[in-house]
Amino acid sequence: MSTRIEPPRRYPWWSWLAFREAQRSSGRVPDPWRILARRPRLLFGTVAYEWAILKTPRLRRRLRMLASVRVSSLIGCHW
After folding, report:
1. What are phi and psi of 12, to 5 degrees?
2. Does the pTM exceed 0.85?
């Protein structure tokens, strides 16, 4: 599925860290992150929020990922 909004031609210099981590954990970079790269502050805030959620010590990582996938499927989100 392709996005209606084109990702920027150039990304912020720090975005490769977030993109690499997303690639490693889920197999690809989420399209919303690529689109948010048009507004680097929003991308930074989103990545910081996602990182904080994933680093919460109350649940194991695998269970957090499973919950994320389940909630996404319930609301009709591809991610």
Report:
1. -60, 150
2. no
Per-residue model confidence as pLDDT tens digits over 17-60: 888 888 887 788 888 888 888 888 888 888 888 888 777 777 78
What CA–CA distance (Å, rounded) separates 76 from 79?
A: 9
User: What is the residue-wise DSSP string for 22-55?
Assistant: HHHHHSS--HHHHHHTTSHHHHHHHHHHHHHHHT
Residue 44 lies in a domain: yes
Question: What was the pLDDT predicted at 25?
Answer: 79
Q: Considering the domain boundaries, does residue 55 fall inside one?
A: yes
Is residue 33 included in any domain, yes or no?
yes
As for how many domains the chain has, the answer is 1
Domain extent for 45: 15-75
Q: Is residue 10 part of a domain?
A: no
Is residue 37 a contact partner of residue 12, using CB atoms and an 8 Å limit?
yes
